Amino acid sequence: MFKTRKELDNAIQTSKKKISKEGLKVLVCAGTGCVANGSIKIFENLQNKIEKLDLPINISLMEENTKENITVKKSGCHGFCEQGPLVKVEPLGLLYKGVEEKDVDRIIEDSLVEGNLIEDLLYKDQEGVSYSKENEIPFYINQNRVTLKNCGNIDPENIEDYLAEDGYQALSEVLFELTPEKVCDIISESGLRGRGGAGFPTGTKWNFARQEKADQKYVIVNGDEGDPGAFMDRSVMEGDPHRVLEGLLITGYAIGATKGHIYVRAEYPLAVKRLRKAIKDAKKAGLIGENILGSGFDFEIKITEGAGAFVCGEETALMASIEGDRGMPRPKPPFPANSGLWGKPTNINNVETIANVPSIISNGAEWFSSIGQENSTGTKTFALTGDVQNTGLIEVPMGITLEKIINDIGGGIREGKKFKAVQIGGPSGGCLTKEHFDLSLDFDSLQQAGAMIGSGGMVVMDEDTCMVEVSRFFLSFTQKESCGKCSPCRIGTKRMLDILERIVAGEGKPEDLEKLDSLAHTIKETSLCGLGKTAPNPVLTTLRYFKDEYKAHIEENRCPAGQCKELKDSYVIDQDACIGCTQCVSVCPVDAISGEPKEAHKIDPEICTVCGSCEPVCPVDAIS
Prior knowledge:
It is a single chain. By secondary structure, this protein is an alpha/beta fold. The protein has 24 helices and 19 strands. The strands form 6 sheets. Strands 14-13-17-15-16 form a 5-stranded mixed sheet, with helices on both faces. It has a 4-stranded mixed sheet with strand order 4-1-5-6, covered by helices on one side. Strands 11-10-9-12 form a 4-stranded parallel sheet, sandwiched between helices. Helix 8 (180-190) crosses helix 11, helix 18 (467-481) runs antiparallel to helix 19 (487-504) and helix 20 (512-526) packs across helix 22 (537-545).
């Protein structure tokens, strides 16, 4: 246990020395995505086999041949999820992707011992260029990893790894050198804004809670990340849990709180496990509890697991859930800073916001504000998914353009198709088009375009995407997740969804577009909480930028993207392109396709149910 600041400093130096003696480090990604693909077995096999080697061995991959020990460790998410499981070798920066159990012997014998690169495990771009080093891969080279600095580089279950990265030094500085008011001022001067959606200035929020007088105050870390396809907060909690704890402790000191809650959805079992381990280790080290480092500051941390309700991402609904009630929002004011958890002043920030705090304290407000833009400083993590070559977790400076993310980091659209749109900000965000390629991705610019940064979900769509169906899909999600407390959200989103379902079914009416627009604005203006106020965004932005598609569905009974099956009379086979491979025949559930092998096939429109099974299996794209 560290009873003083000096003891913590000594422990940090001891950890640095210990880590420096680990020699060659083989880091196996143990984030959720890679674990699901078998990375733990890879880790165990690597560890067991390397322990049996007669070390030290010759490592000729180094610039100069040296003799090194080898240490095998688990790490958090590396970000390049699509390419997992990932194995990184440091300090070489060597990255192997798509690793399987059968590759373990090759990695040890061919790569670590003989010093040869394993070509088929290296990342290759669309032109076939191989990259052996992580920091040379376009996916990584165009990022600026601040929040994710340790993710993929340290063992998230080992507090010594975090200490070796100067972990808890920011907390120590705060407790012994700064007043709570000064901490709030530093966060304000940094320009940090909430990364959970609204982008409210963090320092201002902290000051509201700090200035309240109460016998008890609380800090809550919102880890209820419910957006489909979003996994930014999950990756931080899994890959760098002590950073979250340190940020939470600093926040507690700044506002005068002595108790903290981390609210994590139960669907994140790995994040919960690692946070619990981190809390246990930090408490044992004297970094959580009474009289931390002899400073007189007391703070306890508790984890609450949510049941997966999307609405509990809203702060007042989240507090109701922690209190044991049904997660439903309440009117504001009073705001949580005045009357929050159990009626006491409460500060709530999401995981990414809190994870930025230690770096800001350590490096200074000016350092953070120099990244990004004047009104949107720092970096932002995004979950890049959809029809883009490289998908995964990225962190970029605020103000980066959409084009740079999609083309430089994402590698462009798959299969050489054209970019059509990107849904940004989750189901409550909005769609942007190619005309927004040069748009600065910051809080204010996105709001003007009808979208928002939100929690950071980013779904890229190609030319084959039906934007009417996209708006229907996202509205369907938010409508189901409505808590039902207020009529505009409960009834209004259902009426909007009914209209959209009629349109994609070919039953739309010309007046539907005006009704959608009117309903959307009414819901935004009168809903109780952020869920209802933002739920119409996908509809409003697609109406704004893709109105012709809506009109084609209604006036021409046609889906321009060819995706709405109710608007298809039948699939047809291009007789000149068909090679008679019979793959379409084998998947047709109603035997609507006929033809001999190696001869052009045909689809009977009287039998075809337009189920869409045949189109994706055709190797020559002859079916449309």
